């Protein structure tokens, strides 16, 4: 699933997390998807498992790339905000509001960066399940 039109709101961490949750639906449902679309040996003749696995592979690749872009884009945007606030803070050392805002943005940046780790775990789990069920039906291209 792609990000909603109009881009991603990186300003509100809760919205950012909610978007990622929606975008991770394919990964959350992969076991069910594989159980309902990739046949067991006894039903192998009734469904084209190689085509099903290929389509699922392409969907997973697209979903993972899309989420990676969203996370990295928000990290870049928030990093820029932090940089700008630091510069302002250096000019106005007595401004406590600025300091609070800087701390808030730094915390949000750390949370966003931690989403990269979550993403790695989610992706690894999905590829493990995918490979267990699809390895005999579909071989992903070597360059990916």
Task: Lay out the secondary structure.
Layout: H1 13-23, H2 25-28, H3 30-37, H4 49-91, H5 96-134
Helix pairs in contact: 4-5
Structure report:
There is one protein chain. The protein is mainly α and about 140 residues long. The chain has one domain. It contains five helices and no strands. The chain starts with 12 loop residues before the first helix and ends in a 10-residue tail after the last helix. Belongs to the MIX23 family.
In a nutshell, what does this entry contain?
It comes from Oryctolagus cuniculus (Rabbit). Helices cover 73% and strands 0% of the residues.
Instruction: From the alpha carbons, calculate the radius of gyration and give it in angstroms.
Output: 21 Å
Helix fraction, binned, reads over 70%
**DSSP strand count:** 0
**Count of individual helical segments:** 5
Number of domains: 1
Distance between the termini: 20 Å
Largest sheet: none
Structural class: mainly alpha
Q: Helix-strand pattern, N to C? A: HHHHH
Please state the overall shape, judged from the principal axes of the Cα atoms.
elongated
Low-confidence stretches: 1-6
Q: Indicate the mean pLDDT.
A: 87
Strand composition percent? under 5%
Protein name: Protein MIX23
Family: Belongs to the MIX23 family.
GO cellular component, one term: mitochondrial intermembrane space
InterPro entries: MIX23
């Amino acid at each position: 699933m792609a990000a909603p039109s109009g881009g991603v709101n990186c300003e509100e961490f809760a919205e950012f997390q909610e978007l990622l949750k929606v975008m991770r639906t394919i990964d959350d449902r992969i076991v069910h998807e594989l159980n309902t679309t990739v046949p067991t040996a006894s039903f192998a003749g009734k469904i084209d498992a190689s085509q099903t696995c290929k389509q699922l592979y392409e969907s997973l690749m697209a979903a993972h790339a899309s989420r990676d872009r969203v996370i990295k884009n928000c990290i870049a945007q928030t990093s820029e905000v932090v940089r700008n606030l630091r510069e302002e803070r250096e000019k106005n050392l007595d401004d406590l509001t600025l300091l609070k805002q800087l701390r808030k943005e730094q915390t949000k940046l750390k949370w966003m960066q931690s989403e990269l780790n979550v993403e790695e775990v989610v992706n690894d789990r999905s590829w493990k399940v995918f490979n267990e069920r699809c390895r005999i039906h579909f071989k992903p291209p070597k360059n990916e």
